[in-house]
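In the previous chapter we treated chains in isolation. Here, by contrast, the input contains two separate entities that must be folded as one system, with a combined length of 789 residues.
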Amino acid sequence: MSEDRVYNVLIVGVGGQGIILASDVLGKVAARHGYDVKKNEIHGMAQRGGSVSSHVRFGKTVSSPIIKMGEADVLLSFEQIETLRYFPFLSVDGNVIVNDQKILPPAVFTGKQEYPPDVLERIREKVPNAVVVDGIHVAENLGNPRVVNVIFLGILSKYLDIPASTYEEVLKESLKPKLVDINLKAFHEGRALAAS
Amino acid sequence: MKELLSGNEAIARGADEYGVRLASAYPGTPSTEILEYIGKRYPKIKAGWAPNEKVALEVAAGAAYGGSRSIAVMKHVGLNVAADPFMTLSYTGVNGGLVIVVCDDPEMHSSQNEQDTRNYAKFGKVPCLDPSDSQEAKDMMGEALNISETFDTPVILRSCTRVSHSMSMVELKDRVEGPKELGLKKDPMKFVMLPAMARRRHPLVEQRLKDIAAFAETFPFNKVMMGDESLGIITGSVAYLYAREAMPNASFLKLGMVWPLPEQMIRDFASRVKRLVVIEELDPFIEEAVRLMGIQVEGKSLTGLCGELSPEKVEKALTGASTAKSIGGIDMELPLRPPNMCPGCPHRATFTALKKNKVYVAGDIGCYTLGALPPIGMLDNCLCMGAGIGIAAGLDRSLGDLAKGKAVAVIGDSTFFHSGMTPLLELAYNGGSTTVVIMDNRITAMTGAQNHPGTGYTLREDPTISADMEKLAEAFGFRRIRTVNPYHVKELQDVVKEELSADEPSLIIARAPCALLKTERILPDKPLRIDENVCIGCKACINTGCPALEFVKIEQPAEGDKRKGYSRINEALCVGCRTCFEVCKSDAVKEAS
């Protein structure tokens, strides 16, 4: 990883999964590390169960706020089929981190269409070392199902070159005091999962 | 000190740093957060939601007439509503700086059209600044206020979804007050636009535009950056950043002011490059102006007129291919994930009652516009803010018996106060038998819960009046006014039926707070459950489109079980609105154990 390069992280999922918070934290972490940062998300209808994507880019200097298709270094997806929806953004050398969760779109929960059955297999066909984690399960074991996003931020942090202490500082500043401990725990649980 | 700010945060911050004393807006994606940030962070700015953009601009104009720096904020289509004051404000000019912040939405992420605000700048003969990122958005707020005061003109500060909602690093400064003396000053020759006065103002407007064009030649945000001379790109807004990303070695003329244009600068740049291309989103605004100068230029023939640009689109437009090595798509049809009304949404209950009456629905703009999507499918037109009532009246009067008792208009509470009151008055005045349903969820919901004149609170959550729709309709002359809790689906269904059969205009107010609203909460937040053995699999509940419901297919039915499946409630999502209970034909919906 050279000094001049720009890191491209694409975070996707469904409204309500904490994507915006995760990408806000990542953006602030990169800024604190001294990088130039650009970040963009489409969240106009996020609260209503729509597909959400957030582009985070950092490096010495960054031009576009959105990642050029095919240049994402990491695709972090909080929902199975959303991973596939944004696949064309991923570089051939890119990594994929997937939350093993299915959120049924309207056509599926109304019984009009099937949820594709073999999404994880399809992801692994293209990216054999894709990281798949059942985030809700891990979060429930930690005692709070709402920290899924920060567990994945922990996993993601292992693919980037910014020290964990910077994430800790930003998490402490961004969260309500009573939520700090559980989220720091979640962050480190994520890092441990990525290492194993 | 530098901070990571969104374009909207930067615009709000810029308003404070450059001494803005008053801000007015109506919410609209992607512009909404600007006034919200002003409300939360900058107490020196008097700020409030206006009922609509026309009023917002007039309030801002009044402040500017009195010497204050002021801003009006809106989305692109909001300027259509404010177009009347806008066009003549150009004639009166200002006193204190007046900036109209307008946010375009290329790609229509959350809009009904893709109009390009730069055309309004030309139409109204006012300057338009076009920032690319958050730092520029903040800096250009200062520039726009200075230009406004120097040249005595309103100025458009144009943003777009990708500028407003992108974050980038911004250098912060302290607030400095504007230079103008405050007070009431009589100057009818300038401010009263009677024909005789307006005739004297118009030549001044034309001269002003020439003066600003001359200023544009040295405006520091119009920048030439020479690189490889084989390709010269003229661009602005976020398109500049895409072009930089795609073609880092090209020569650039980056325009921070897109109207009026710096003609000499463009001519000089054109003469220094071999191939000249304009990279701009939406209309060929710069391209046509350059071509009118007699300069050979390419643009929309390469990038197209529809949707937003992106780094790869620009690269492909200029080189025919992308250098990025994508892993590629997956050959699989993915179910779409359109936005949906939330679990417990009162609009779902209202649409369910309307569906039972099999009516044609003239719609409007808000969360309830999503009622057009399957499985609800109950919105039959949606044109612009406030249009539904007038459209329903037109259908009713022109079709007579063909529409009688079969059509209603629906409109939200915030949209009603925005531009639904005048068509309601028209109904009372001209008669007919139109039925109007105000879907009053007590908030401006679609844009993320903003107060309006009916909620009882201001932008800054201070208590205020709550405008009374029933009394308003009564004052207009309505005799048939009914208020119903939409969660009582059967009752609402009957009320709709009765009002449809009436021979005069009627108003139904379906009132229940937005399911996301924490104040005024009436939902029990206790999930229901469905007894899968009692459920007959008729999908009546499923067809309300509630995300807390799921149709479970029966793969191997037990003997005698003719059902294809049954409904199930996701207890984590259900808030107990009971709409499914109301429509259930088999009493399968129960209280959760």
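Chain A is about 40% helix and 20% strand. Chain A has one domain: 7-195. Compare these points with the single-chain example from earlier in the chapter.
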